[in-house]
């Protein structure tokens, strides 16, 4: 499949407009990649002694510039500052000495690990044309952390002679230097685990099944997940992203910590707590400790509750001042009758927990103007945000959108902040699907609803002001997973497939495995590893003792198992070589019973019994291997029939 690159960083309405104008007229099966990476790395030449001249030739992924000078300056300034502080005997200088020694040693070890990784980076690249993979991103993130550390070291050098002996001026810089040193030590830990993953990987696959990973690497990984995050959510929060995002991420994490303090109270009180989150903004160490504690101990209900704060009326009202108005904004339900298109019958959703009233599918239509045919939807005054200026002819293009939220939270209303600008910029109708959320409606309910909505759109094109000519899919995160699976189901059923799909930071493999991106998820403030495990478990219908139960939810999980058996039986497509590489069955390790018990006890101490229960059930679940759960496992025969596909990452 040919590959072309799209270097757009973030998908603005204007960017999507340009993208869609190209995509909606394109029918070739092409993958467009928007990774901001084009990386050709040379070997690193490292000194045997840290004090000797350093020659580094590591090119960055982003711009072709190098981190050579950065590493040289960090090591040089660390040594210079250490020599100066060593001449003084006061307490502050001793603390600086200690931190600088840690920084120096960590950087020296990290550069050795980077050298090892650099030798094999090309084996994992996205394609021969696009030199990008998770290991390259990990190295790049380490380089950016070094750049930020260099800024602190320069401030220390500039001020230590005049002011650092004054406690009031020194403590802040000391705390900043400590924070960045701890972050670099966490990055060193990630690099070490990455080297271990490469040694365990099969046929240069980025994903390594946990059954193939030595127990010591597995334990180190869980220790990092459990304990290292407290060094990443304080002063250095979000350093791997654009600096313009750091303030936003800090506010989100502060709100996250403040919300936990009022969790289980009324929604009004919880929402009000966000206004009192200033202490977690002013005191980053306190915020980091709190967030790490929450991520380690909370269940999926808290994750769901926090994300669903965006559904609170107060926040919705506020978003109206951010998102522009469109003429048509109609929310309605479709179903429950089966849909027949060219002798292909698409049944209404029958997944877990379905009842007669819940077989209906909720969708929202957004349009910048009323178009011919929309009157068939019986538009009311409440469906119009503005006065119609003109009734336009039917559009040749339509966009079907599926929102993200970890399969457990948010709705189309949450995502209107960008959907409405898209509707105005693209000047085409947008249909957003409000699928039922896990854990009340686990797999495959969301897929069935999205597929049913797609069939309804095809059959009722004129009601949406669409000629039926060209349709584009778009989805972020979990929504990207769902639109990919809907495309797979359309190909399998012989139904018309979309003309193109756009996937924003989409998880294509939900299987319980290790990869560079999952290493880096430890420092992700929004999609943290602990959150991801709980979201996947909820979507898969996995529940452990001690979590809340209700009859409907329990029956849903029983139904999930039955539905999976049906899906498994109907899946007669041959496995692709990619799937054969990924499909490493979990085999019990050949260890003595006492060793296994010791390993289990250590894991329990690290992650806790509830988390260990989730991890064990995730590792045992065959459901996560199914192509409708993990699209990366689908056959090459299906992939060859895919439409133009855009992969968009955040940066």
Rg (CA only): 26 Å
| Quaternary structure state of the chains depicted | single chain
Morphology: globular
Total helical segments? 22
The first-level CATH class of the largest domain is given as Alpha Beta
What's the number of structural domains? Answer: 2
Strand content: 5-15%
Count of distinct strands? 13
The end-to-end distance, rounded to whole angstroms, is: 26 Å
Q: Which structural class best describes the helix and strand composition?
A: alpha/beta
Secondary structure: elements and pairs:
Elements: E1 3-5, H1 13-23, E2 31-33, H2 68-85, H3 91-118, H4 134-159, H5 167-200, E3 208-209, H6 215-227, H7 246-261, H8 267-273, H9 278-282, H10 284-297, H11 300-307, H12 313-319, E4 328-334, E5 339-341, E6 344-346, E7 361-367, E8 395-402, H13 416-426, E9 430-434, H14 445-459, E10 466-476, H15 478-493, E11 500-504, E12 513-514, H16 516-520, H17 529-539, H18 551-570, H19 577-582, H20 593-607, H21 609-620, H22 636-639, E13 644-648
Parallel strand pairs: 1-2, 2-13, 8-9, 8-10, 10-11, 11-13
Antiparallel strand pairs: 3-12, 4-7, 5-6, 7-9
